[in-house]
Design goal:
By secondary structure, the chain is an alpha+beta fold. The chain has one domain: 3-Layer(aba) Sandwich (Aminopeptidase), CATH 3.40.630.30. The protein has 4 helices and 7 strands. Strand 4, helix 3 (about 110-120) and strand 5 form a beta-alpha-beta unit.
Length: about 180
């Protein structure tokens, strides 16, 4: 049990070696717990390092990290449209939102959403879109509680262990 948890959420501009290790560790834990934003099995560490370093290089992607007692315990990626997509420039997307199993229940996921919404507004977005696999029940409840509206379902969203799973699509108008 974590006593007196201190939550901090930031839009990070860079990651140091400690942050990179934290990101890789919590990604491995999330994958093993069934919520690895697309991965079914933990990839080699070098693949995770390349993934997280690459995330920092994408100009229209903001990495939001949630820390519990100064250790990265969750992430959310806020993705904006590239300059050539003028017709959707007021829409941001939430992707790869997760919290390590040991850090759940402290409000970190909710706080990361709050920071993402504030950043989206700050950078000119009026809407946020996201999609969630049907098995991610806690995430679905959280987004609905935060005012996201489900607008559709894809019956062939994911294929896991020989089975098709549905995915739900949500949006929220920020202002």
């Amino acid at each position: 049990m974590i006593k007196n948890p201190k939550i901090q959420v930031d839009v990070t501009k860079s990651i140091n070696d400690t942050d990179l290790a934290d990101l890789c560790n919590i990604t491995e834990q999330a994958i093993n717990a069934g919520g690895g934003f697309g991965w079914l099995r933990v990839p080699p560490r070098k693949v995770l390092i390349k993934y997280w370093k690459g995330t920092m290089l994408v100009p229209h992607r903001k990495l939001i990290v949630g820390r519990l007692n100064k250790v990265i315990a969750g992430t959310l990626q806020l993705i904006f449209q590239p300059p050539n997509d003028e017709v959707q420039r007021n829409i941001a997307n939430i992707k790869s939102h997760f919290v390590a199993p040991w850090a759940r229940g402290f409000g970190l996921a909710k706080k990361m959403i709050d920071v993402a919404e504030k950043k989206a507004l700050e950078l000119g977005s009026n809407f946020i879109h996201l999609d969630v696999r049907e098995t991610q029940e806690a995430a679905i409840k959280l987004f609905e509680a935060k005012g996201y509206k489900k607008w559709g379902t894809n019956p062939f969203y994911a294929f896991i262990n020989g089975q098709n799973l549905r995915g739900h699509y949500f949006f929220k108008q920020l202002k």
